[in-house]
């Protein structure tokens, strides 16, 4: 009797656990990602662009940089200037690909994405001087994604 009840309790616990895990996977994916609004807030620059060239690995952080042709700035265009702009002004270097702290962090040459980035902080110089650093997951370019990002950007005033 006692063992029967115990088995039932165990079965119950297992069922709840498995359902919990499935629910989490289904609703949030296997990697936790902040809300778009938070991601937009923590990135000073948001742009769409195409990966033209994959550059060397950063041996310290095990990440890599890419030369990206910029199509459009959704946020922070005025912050991107001077030495950051490459080859006549429509390309930038973006670092931090492969960063395990970012869920969707991998690109291949020719990929076009929405990039959430910040200027490389000074402690990352000189390796990443004049580079932008990936700040959160890459996003596919769809009309819906573009509209959602623009909506977040327009929700606040940026100077
Ligand atoms: C993203 O930028 C914020 C500052 O806005 C910073 O605190 C955070 O560490 C950055 N995240 C990554 C993964 O670099």
Short description:
With 159 residues, the protein is an alpha+beta fold. It has 3 helices and 6 strands.
What would you note in describing this structure?
InterPro entries: NtA_dom, TIMP-like_OB-fold. Keywords: Disulfide bond, Signal. The protein is of the alpha+beta class. The chain has two domains: 30 residues; 119 residues, OB fold (Dihydrolipoamide Acetyltransferase, E2P) (Beta Barrel). It has three helices and six strands; from the N terminus they run H-H-E-E-E-E-E-E-H. It has a five-stranded mixed barrel with strand order 1-2-3-5-4. The longest helix has 27 residues. The model has no long low-confidence stretch (mean pLDDT 90). The chain binds 2-acetamido-2-deoxy-beta-D-glucopyranose. 2-acetamido-2-deoxy-beta-D-glucopyranose binds next to loops.
The major sheet is characterized as: 5 strands, mixed, barrel
Q: What is the second-level CATH architecture of the largest domain?
A: Beta Barrel
* SSE order: HHEEEEEEH
Number of domains: 2
CATH topology of the largest domain: OB fold (Dihydrolipoamide Acetyltransferase, E2P)
Question: Mind sketching the topology for me?
Answer:
Blueprint: H1 2-28, H2 36-42, E1 45-58, E2 63-75, E3 91-97, E4 112-119, E5 132-134, E6 139-140, H3 143-154
Parallel strand pairs: 3-5
Antiparallel strand pairs: 1-2, 1-4, 2-3, 4-5, 4-6
Helix pairs in contact: 2-3
The structure holds 2-acetamido-2-deoxy-beta-D-glucopyranose.
Pfam families: NtA (PF03146)
GO molecular function: laminin binding
Keywords: Disulfide bond, Signal
């Amino acid at each position: 009797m006692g063992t029967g009840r115990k088995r039932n309790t165990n079965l119950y616990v297992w069922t709840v656990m498995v359902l919990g895990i499935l629910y989490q996977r289904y609703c949030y994916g296997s990697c936790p990602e902040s809300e778009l609004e938070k991601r937009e807030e923590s990135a000073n620059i948001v742009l769409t662009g195409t990966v033209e060239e994959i550059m060397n690995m950063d041996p310290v952080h095990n990440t890599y940089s890419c030369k990206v042709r910029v199509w459009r700035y959704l946020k922070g265009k005025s912050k991107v200037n001077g030495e950051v702009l490459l080859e006549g002004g429509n390309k930038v270097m973006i670092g931090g690909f492969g960063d395990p702290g970012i869920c969707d962090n991998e690109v291949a040459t020719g990929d076009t994405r929405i990039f959430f980035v910040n200027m490389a902080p000074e402690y990352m110089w000189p390796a990443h001087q004049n580079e932008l650093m990936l700040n959160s997951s890459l996003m596919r370019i769809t009309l819906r994604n573009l509209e959602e990002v623009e909506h977040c950007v327009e929700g606040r005033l940026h100077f």
